Amino acid sequence: MKISEHFPAYTEFSPLVPVKCITPRTEGCFHRFFDTSPVSPSGRYVALLQMPQEHRLPEPGEAANIVLIDLHTAEERVVSQTCGWEPQLGANINWGADDHSLFYNDVNTATWEPLCVRLNPHTGEKRLMPGSIYRISPDGRTIISACPKRMRRTQLGYGIIVPDEQVPRNYGFRDDDGLYALDTETGERKLLVSIKDVFDRAEPSIDKALYEHGECYGFHCKFNPQGDRILFTMRWFHTEQEQPWNMITQGLKYWVITMKADGSDIRVAVGPEQWDKGGHHINWYPDGERLSMNLCLDGDKQLYLVQVNKDGTNLGKIIDSIPGSGHPTVHPNGRHIVTDSYEHEKVAFGDGTVPLRLIDLQEQSEATIVRIPIGNPGTKVSGVLRVDPHPAWAPDNKHLVFNGYVDGTRRVFIADLSGLV
Question: Source organism's superkingdom (predicted)?
């Protein structure tokens, strides 16, 4: 992957690998998430979101920029704007099958309904489709997403901003909300699996009597690398809980569900009885048969890097001697795991900087490849404004894209790990 020499090097704390800042002139930029490459399929372009401001939560109808970075020339260009974003995953920008297909969320501010935009960033040609995007399939043909308005019921930062009164509520086992699928060629959208479908059809079966008096919402969803299976997370809380509806912290129950790409063969990979011990951030293994995750297994509040089969069997530690943290991804070579850290986690440095950790499963060792600042004033307003590095592999699986907070603003970086992986 060619990266222009015009991008300045990041040298603070002596990185173990070459690191470039690819947004040296543009403030407030970040890339989507640790499971999505912001780098285009050819390896030439990077698509980012630029926040209009960084010191407060966005308001309904507030627009952000979609920014395109040319890695060959170091050119930065605003290619569109969107009102369909939040501070953690932005507008859920995903590349399609080629460098001419960029997908992201927007909002019709007249109706407050979400839109999925297909943009050719080189010509400006747009197509508006109903619904929203969270993840796109590896072949670029199918987009999946939970309802981005409802996602805010349990946690801010990951969906779209609309007025509070425009956010629907899911009482009971809804058959009209769940995981949606959008065909990128025809523009047709359908409810692939409803919340009720999961409670009715999942194996091992879920005891519905425990959850009939509550609200359940879809959240994360991801295709496996092969495109033949999907993971889908759900969150439930008791209807009578007296907590702010978008900051539920007590009694929240989580499920990690997997299914075939057509919505059949619904399986519970991780349920509340396990997740209640503590955990976060699931991803697919490269083989598409297993999941990786941070999870507390023994009730000791110690996060481990764990793996579990798509059907919930064979849950166990990937490695005993090294703790979990942040947003872990197993490299396609099967030998390495890369992850970051939250500012409050034990592996962080306690000064507003965190490590990008490269874990070698064969050598049973780890190295801090980059130490990056993420502490920022916005977190005093809301934790939603935190900066997570979200390290994500480029299509060549040798370069790592991540976020940081450097020189008073959000910036995006690329590290060259070709000498290590």
Answer: Bacteria
